[in-house]
Design a protein that fits this description.
This protein is an alpha+beta fold and 510 residues long. The strands form two sheets. It has a four-stranded mixed β-sheet with strand order 4-3-5-6, with helices on one face. Strand 5 and strand 6 form a beta hairpin. It is built from 22 helices and six strands. Helix content is 55%, strand content 6%.
């Protein structure tokens, strides 16, 4: 499909600029504009493309196949949270550190953002202080453990799901391709299935054409042995560096300064780029066609912790659908989700998970689903109410998923507060900033909900949808946090109180 591309400069934090945040309030890439309709978060975008342009399907039509694709997308998203800090420590940090001075790095970031958390992140990246050596080792271990799950899934398989090329392969490939660039070589001896799969995919015309030349150059450079020497030299104190290391860093600084266009950007500091905006044309949405299950939902086991907003929303959804299930407590405070017993249910070690003893005429087999969105889509399809919970056309479904993406985007601010005040655990070692900054960001997101609820009763219009369940359980989990309140958001507060009364009434009736 033809499309126009606008490069967003992540090095100089353009994704946090006011202009870009109007398109994508999460401040991440990518964002897609189809006419005047904008969609953010990669999974929401590919779902929209799948539904709006169904001529080349890349997601299985049956709900179980779709759920498997969704789970791999979720698995990649979970892995990205581990990958990103290591990438900034080992790749982006060295490029920043050698390509510009600290003052220059901060000067180039400030035109895009004055958020203290953004600037603190930029400071830590330049100072190569994103992760401690111990945290680096832990992230590396976890990334290889995750790759071992991919390796096992590819045993005797050409593709990730159902023997057919799908969005699951597309979701995983770019991230795994970057492993060597952050010092994680993928050995054919240790990961033969993964290497075979990567080789099969990387020569596909669409894969070749979609990677910019600049990206190829940086990935090739970062994967070269010389970059390992650069990292080692930077990790050595300036007093202990050899003459060869000093020369290497001097030459690298010249190269990275040129690659980063530092001098040109400094000259243009006072002239922030005018970002192209979407055109004012309204695309026509397509009606969704959702395949129903051929088996009933029975003998369900829900593994989770009610203090987890993701576990809680699935419980609420199953209750709303009138589907019976057995609750299996996984105590997050006791780290039961990380133990071997639960990892046989979900190898990623996250809640919730749903086990469905699938019954058919010729066999009985267990299906295990993890990731709350994958579970929600699967069970609403089974109940014949997918459209009621997600929308009946491509635009409605995309809007619903964007609310879910915004909710998921609050994770990095939410998690340390939730761990401290709900689970009563220590803070998150990867947390950047302080509690007040995290609360300010969360309150900013609540302002977007407040604006939407000013003229309508629910986030997606006149009916409660899964996005409302998601945000309800997120806010519910934040209420114990000191300093968090809905007092400045009257419409949101009324929405929350209405849902709280509704769900409590349902529980009491049950």
């Amino acid at each position: 499909m033809p499309f126009d591309e606008v490069e967003v400069d992540l090095v100089n934090m353009e994704q946090r600029s006011e202009a870009y945040l109007r398109l994508n309030p999460n401040g991440f890439v990518p964002t897609l504009a189809h006419g005047s309709f904008t969609i953010f978060e990669s999974a929401a975008i590919v779902d929209y493309l799948e539904e709006q342009f169904p001529q080349s399907p890349l997601v299985p039509a049956d709900p179980w196949g779709k759920a498997q694709v969704r789970m791999w997308q979720s698995a990649e998203g979970a892995m990205a949270k581990i990958f990103r800090p290591l990438m900034y420590q080992r790749l982006m940090g060295p490029v920043q550190h050698l390509g510009r001075t600290h003052d220059e790095a901060m000067a180039l970031a400030r035109p895009s953002t004055n958020d203290p958390q953004d600037l603190l992140w930029e400071d830590r990246v330049w100072k190569l202080n994103v992760l401690t050596p111990e945290q680096e080792a832990d992230h590396e271990r976890r990334l290889f453990e995750w790759l071992a799950i991919v390796e096992q899934a590819l045993q005797d398989q050409t593709y990730m799901v159902g023997g057919e090329f799908s969005q699951a392969d597309i979701a995983l490939f770019p991230r795994i391709l970057m492993y060597p660039a952050i010092g994680l070589p993928i050995s054919p001896t240790q990961f033969p299935n993964t290497c075979r799969w990567m080789t099969n995919l990387q020569d596909r015309p669409s894969f070749v054409e979609s990677e910019p030349e600049q990206s190829k150059k940086i990935r090739k450079l970062a994967s070269a042995p010389i970059f390992t020497k650069i990292r080692l030299a930077l990790a050595t104190s300036s007093q202990q560096r050899t003459l060869g290391q000093r020369g290497l860093l001097w030459l690298s600084s010249k190269l990275f300064r040129k690659l980063s266009r530092t001098d040109q950007l400094l000259r243009d500091t006072g002239r922030q780029r005018v970002m192209p905006m979407p055109v004012e044309t309204k695309p026509e949405s397509r009606t969704l066609s959702v395949t129903s299950h051929s088996t009933e939902l029975a003998a369900l086991e829900l593994f989770g912790d009610r203090r987890s907003p993701h576990s809680r929303r699935i419980g609420l959804l199953l209750n709303q659908l009138g589907i019976e299930y057995q609750w299996q407590l996984i105590d997050l405070a006791a780290s039961e989700h990380k133990r071997a017993a639960f990892r046989t249910v979900n190898p990623l070690g996250e809640v919730p998970a749903l086990r469905h003893q699938c019954r058919s005429a010729d066999q009985s087999r267990a299906r295990t689903l993890y990731d709350s969105l994958a579970i929600a889509e699967y069970v609403t399809s089974a109940a014949g109410s997918y459209a009621a919970w997600f929308g009946d056309n491509s635009e409605q479904a995309a809007r619903s998923r964007m609310w879910l993406a915004l909710e998921a985007g609050s994770h990095k601010e939410f998690k340390p507060l939730w761990q401290k005040y709900v689970l009563k655990q220590g803070g998150d070692p990867d947390f950047i900033g302080d509690e007040s900054t995290a609360l300010n960001r969360l309150h900013h997101q609540l302002g977007l909900l407040e604006e939407m609820l000013t003229d309508q009763p629910y986030l997606c219009g006149s009916a409660m949808r899964y996005a409302d369940l998601a945000w309800y359980t997120r806010i519910e989990s934040l209420l114990p946090v000191p300093g968090f309140a809905l007092a400045d958001f009257p419409h949101l507060a009324n929405w929350y109180q209405g849902l709280a009364q509704y769900f409590n009434q349902e529980v009491a009736t049950a």
